[in-house]
Amino acid sequence: MAIIIKPVVTEKMTGLGEKLNRFAFLVERSANKIQIKKAVEELYGVNVVAVNTIVVTPKVKSRYTKSGVVTGKSRLCKKAIVTLKDGDTIDFYSNI
């Protein structure tokens, strides 16, 4: 089971990465902070100082179609914001 699903690359997280040396990842809901720290250190070869986790609740979404209103939810996910040691960085675009 892979703990890290994918990195979160948005304007807000890119700004935090440049200023505060923090990076965000979507992770498995069952993963704890120790497992997340170990997975990031092994995958990217960096030193992790702190891990903060957030469980993002689903939002109710609806749209109007010919057959009526269709409602649903976005998915439930868990994010991890990882703070790296000074001098360490993660380059998500090096593989492109």
Could you walk me through the main structural features you see in this protein, from its secondary elements to its overall organization?
- With 96 residues, the protein is of the alpha+beta class.
- It has one domain: Alpha-Beta Plaits, CATH 3.30.70.
- Helices cover 23% and strands 42% of the residues.
- It contains two helices and six strands; from the N terminus they run βαβαββββ.
- The protein has helices at 11-20, 33-44, and strands at 4-8, 22-27, 48-56, 60-65, 68-73, 77-84.
- The strands form two sheets. The protein has a four-stranded antiparallel beta sheet with strand order 1-2-6-3. A two-stranded antiparallel sheet has the order 4-5.
- The longest helix is centred in the middle third of the chain and has 12 residues, at 33-44.
- The radius of gyration is 16 Å and the shape is elongated.
- The two termini are 25 Å apart.
Summarize the main sheet: 4 strands, antiparallel
Low-confidence stretches: none
Q: Please trace the helix and strand order, writing H or E for each element.
A: EHEHEEEE
Q: First CA to last CA: what distance?
A: 25 Å
| CATH topology type | Alpha-Beta Plaits
Keywords:
single chain, 96 residues, alpha+beta, Alpha-Beta Plaits, 4-stranded antiparallel sheet, two-stranded antiparallel ribbon, 6 strands, 23% helix
